[in-house]
């Protein structure tokens, strides 16, 4: 039996190889899912931990415990430390992650203290920090063996005005009253590397602590009548070892730690909660993006398997006539499809691994790179998915055989060409699905703002929003098949009397087979339309993201300088403050060195109050600029239609340059306060937050000299998230003033340095820690969501080209083979070869060219209807630049070129087959049949 099956496969080797290709691609796309899901999940986790470290300025994976112990239960410091180390050991028994560092701090409450050179009534805490000598440098030192030695931080030194060698007289309770203990400041310390994971609490955070040795701390415990000793324990773990496999398990353990110990805390669970939400989104996105491509491959496999089954109808009838039961025939074909599925499974796993790695390496549509994709590795779930896909393929290929296995051999003479109208056409399924798609689109468009907020709040997306475009394409394809049939009948009725014999035979064939040939039309339309939509969706997403980033940055690179704030407290309680400006000359030299074409200061303040008439605005955004330098440096990314402002933004700079006390304001500010060009307003600024949170120190009157909708670096819309995770949209109001005027009226405050890089130069040629548009674009391209989208759209587009070309060529070649007898009869009746070719060309116009054109039209229509809606997933924020649809001519030419080659090759092959066809052989074949 097995040898018989192998011979059957060999007899139709080319068809079976095409079927194997389709099965292998289907399984490969199936097994991509778990690998892509796990890889993207690990990438998201790494990104979340990194972002947490940057935004919160703390190590992103730390467990902690802070509280007090009774001194009666712990006679010395080591017993307290041992207890804390026991907690750490227990934590890591369950959360099995390598320890990066650990910071232990124990303190005694201390009390009021007098300093030798300073004033009285300062308050200090006595502390022991075991890692101080290892992780801190001594800035200044001076020993004194006559008293207890202690160390303080630079922050403590600055705040209390202390110096090395100065004595501190601490008044501590000793049970019988107050006792004075003298400490000498032997060391002034600062962190060796403040970014070291050890510094969960920095020395600045421990500003009132005087650090002593362990022996001194134990001795101090004897003086105190305090009942408690305070402690803090921070355990830093290697977050790189947290992945999609263990994240849920560790999250559960940490929840149990918190439930069992109210003093336990960590900063890992919040990150994991955000990860779990994004992971759900990734899963839904993957299935929504894969499903249309899987359907396309199923159509391809159905087309090939149907052709094979059609050719083997006689074989099935012969087997049945010789006594084989329906079950035996079914088992025979089950073995045949099982062999193909097994081979496809092996190939599919390897191909799926390669496809996933290739898709993950994209940083744009059809742009493959050599970037690090180490998180995308082989996972055992790929084997499960491969087996499941193989079983689906076996059933999909084999089940139709059961219908073909009829009981009577007399059914060999049954009608082979179905004239029965399909169920979908009878019930107008195409119209119903098209109406459903339009209804869904209408509803989603009404909910755009709600959907955008949902995306910003990291809620799961609705996959139907992504699949609606596929539903539209499928429904439109069915409608085009219906209309094509009606066009064939109309043309035939109008011109039948004028047809040549070849054309009459062609239309007769089209009318007889229009229901059977509809499958090819649907396949072609979905392939072409899907390819066009995928390309346009990816291009639109990438282009809009890049343009928004370039607009938001406003120039090539920005460096945020470090300004030192000096604060002086006066005896009357008032405070004087000033900023020390760094050397700006080092940036101006970049122009002389040919690295930058423009460099300028941009002073920014987002805490500005503006008033005009009876109206006022709080928290406006002030930019202070040098108009000439700013014009040489900044860039305003325009909309696709170049309609952000009514005139070129240089005109507004010119107006500002003419008015030293003038300002440029945003259109929303002008509307909110009822302002127009020439009106006056007043704007006020607050003292630095380090001095006072809510104190205005200066105001200035200004004249409105220009009103703009967009300006370099100005984002009109901002989004704020409350403690419950709810997102609210807010408008930002812009006011742009002259730099010299602002510094004169308000004094020197921190500014950022904007740079316009020379051609061929990058930020690597300047300094590290620069913010550049290109860096932000690269980071955005490497985000998991964008990477998945680019990767899947790229794979879908390439698979569409392959499947469409192979399927189209194979279908027409097999159709020609099946009609060999018919062509032989036509030739025997006197029809010339040229007329046969004309007949085939006419059929291709209606069955191939029209569907291909319809596919292109449907793809462009779907782009116009759905791209802006789906873009909400990637661009949920409102912006000065609206979402514009981008259609790249190169993508359309690539698709058209491949289809043209496929059609040309098909026509050449058909011509050669017709030339090689022997009339006598064809007629003899008809007699034998």
TrEMBL record:
Molecular function GO terms recorded: transmembrane transporter activity
Domain ABC3 transporter permease C-terminal: 294-404, 797-915
Compartments, as annotated in UniProt: Cell membrane
Record-stated family: Belongs to the ABC-4 integral membrane protein family.
Descriptive protein name: ABC transporter permease
Membrane-traversing stretches: 14-36, 284-309, 330-355, 378-402, 423-442, 471-495, 515-533, 791-813, 845-875, 895-914
Keyword Ribonucleoprotein among UniProt keywords: no
Keywords carried by this UniProt record: Cell membrane, Membrane, Transmembrane, Transmembrane helix
Topology in membrane: Multi-pass membrane protein
Lineage, highest ranks first: Bacteria, Bacillati, Bacillota, Clostridia, Lachnospirales
Pfam families from the UniProt entry: FtsX
Main location: membrane
UniProt KW Kinase keyword: no
Top-level taxon of origin: Bacteria
Species of provenance: Agathobacter rectalis
GO cellular component assignments: plasma membrane
InterPro entries with a match to the protein in the record: ABC3_permease_C, Macrolide_Exporter_MacB
């Amino acid at each position: 039996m097995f040898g018989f099956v192998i011979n059957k496969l060999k007899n139709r080797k080319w068809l079976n190889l095409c079927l194997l290709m389709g099965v292998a691609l289907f399984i490969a796309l199936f097994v991509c899912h778990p690998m892509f899901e796990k890889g993207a999940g690990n990438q998201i986790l790494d990104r979340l931990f990194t972002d947490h470290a940057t935004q919160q300025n703390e190590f992103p994976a730390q467990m902690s415990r802070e509280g007090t112990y009774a001194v009666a239960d712990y006679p010395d410091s080591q017993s307290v430390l041992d207890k804390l180390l026991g907690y750490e050991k227990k934590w890591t028994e369950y959360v099995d992650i390598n320890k990066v560092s650990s910071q232990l701090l124990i303190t005694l409450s201390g009390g009021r203290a007098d300093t030798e050179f300073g004033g009285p009534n300062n308050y200090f805490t006595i502390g022991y920090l075991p890692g101080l000598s290892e992780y801190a440098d001594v800035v200044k030192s001076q020993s004194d063996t006559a008293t207890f030695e202690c160390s303080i931080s630079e922050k403590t030194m600055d705040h209390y005005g202390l110096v090395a060698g100065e004595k501190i007289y601490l008044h501590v309770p000793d049970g019988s009253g107050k006792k004075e203990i003298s400490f000498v400041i032997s060391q002034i310390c600062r962190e060796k590397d403040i970014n070291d994971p050890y510094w969960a609490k920095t020395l600045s955070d421990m500003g009132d602590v005087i650090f002593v040795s362990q022996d001194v701390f134990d001795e101090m415990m004897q003086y105190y009548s305090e009942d408690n000793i305070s402690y803090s324990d921070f355990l830093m773990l290697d977050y790189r070892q947290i992945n999609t496999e263990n994240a849920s398990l560790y999250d559960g353990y940490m929840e149990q730690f918190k439930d069992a110990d109210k003093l336990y805390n960590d900063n890992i669970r919040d990150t994991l909660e955000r990860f779990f939400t994004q992971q759900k989104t990734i899963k839904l996105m993957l299935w929504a993006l894969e499903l249309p491509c899987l359907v396309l491959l199923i159509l391809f496999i159905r087309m090939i398997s149907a052709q094979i089954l059609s050719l083997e109808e006689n074989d099935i009838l012969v087997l049945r006539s010789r006594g084989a039961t329906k079950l035996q025939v079914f088992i025979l074909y089950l073995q045949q499809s099982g062999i193909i599925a097994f081979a496809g499974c092996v190939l599919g796993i390897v191909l799926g691994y390669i496809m996933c790695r290739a898709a993950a390496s994209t940083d744009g549509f059809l742009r493959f790179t050599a970037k690090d994709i180490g998180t995308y590795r082989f996972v055992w779930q790929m084997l499960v998915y491969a087996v499941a896909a193989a079983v689906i393929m076996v059933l999909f290929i084999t089940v139709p055989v059961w219908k073909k296995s009829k009981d009577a051999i007399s059914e060999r003479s049954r009608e082979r060409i179905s004239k029965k109208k399909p169920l979908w056409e009878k019930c107008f399924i195409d119209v119903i699905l098209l109406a459903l798609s339009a209804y869904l689109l209408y509803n989603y468009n009404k909910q755009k703002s709600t959907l955008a907020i949902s995306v910003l709040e990291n809620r799961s997306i609705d996959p139907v929003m992504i699949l609606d475009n596929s539903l539209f394409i499928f429904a439109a394809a069915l409608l085009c098949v219906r209309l094509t049939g009606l066009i064939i009948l109309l043309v035939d009725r109008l011109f039948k009397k004028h047809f040549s014999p070849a054309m009459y035979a062609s239309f007769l064939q089209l009318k007889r087979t229009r229901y059977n040939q509809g499958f090819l039309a649907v396949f072609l339309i979905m392939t072409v339309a899907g390819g066009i939509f995928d390309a346009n969706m990816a291009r639109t997403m990438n282009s809009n993201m890049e343009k928004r980033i370039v607009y938001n940055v406003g120039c090539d690179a920005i460096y945020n300088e470090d300004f030192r704030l000096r604060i002086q407290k006066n005896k009357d309680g008032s405070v004087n403050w000033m900023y020390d400006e760094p050397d700006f000359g080092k940036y101006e030299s970049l122009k002389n060195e040919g690295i930058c074409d423009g460099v300028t200061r941009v002073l920014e303040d987002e805490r500005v109050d503006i008033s005009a008439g009876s109206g006022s605005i709080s928290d406006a955004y002030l930019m202070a600029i040098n108009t000439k330098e700013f014009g040489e440096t900044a860039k305003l990314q325009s909309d696709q239609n170049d309609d952000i402002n009514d005139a070129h933004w240089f005109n507004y700079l010119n107006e500002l340059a003419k008015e030293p006390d003038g300002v440029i304001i945003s259109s929303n500010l002008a509307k909110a306060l009822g302002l127009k060009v020439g009106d006056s307003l007043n704007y006020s600024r607050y003292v630095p937050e380090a001095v006072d949170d809510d104190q205005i120190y200066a105001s200035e009157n200004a004249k409105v000299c220009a009103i703009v909708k967009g300006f370099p670096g100005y984002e009109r819309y901002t989004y704020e998230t409350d403690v419950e995770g709810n997102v609210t949209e807010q408008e930002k109001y812009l006011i742009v003033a002259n730099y010299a005027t602002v510094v004169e009226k308000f004094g020197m405050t921190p500014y950022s340095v904007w740079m316009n890089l020379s051609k061929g130069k990058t930020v690597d040629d300047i300094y590290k820690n620069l913010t550049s548009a290109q860096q932000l674009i690269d980071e955005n391209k490497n985000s998991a969501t964008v990477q998945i989208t680019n990767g899947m759209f790229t794979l879908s587009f390439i698979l569409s080209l392959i499947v469409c070309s192979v399927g189209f060529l194979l279908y027409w070649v097999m159709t020609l083979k099946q009609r060999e007898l018919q062509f032989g009869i036509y030739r025997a009746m006197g029809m010339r070869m040229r007329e046969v070719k004309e007949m085939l060309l006419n059929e291709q116009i209606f069955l191939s060219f029209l569907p291909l054109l319809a596919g292109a039209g449907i793809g462009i229509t779907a782009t116009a209807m759905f791209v802006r809606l789906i873009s909400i997933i990637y661009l949920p924020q409102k912006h000065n630049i609206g979402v514009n649809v981008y259609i790249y001519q190169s993508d359309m030419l690539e698709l058209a070129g491949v289809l043209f080659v496929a059609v040309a090759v098909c026509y050449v092959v058909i011509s050669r087959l017709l030339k090689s066809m022997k009339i006598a052989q064809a007629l003899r074949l008809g007699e034998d049949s």
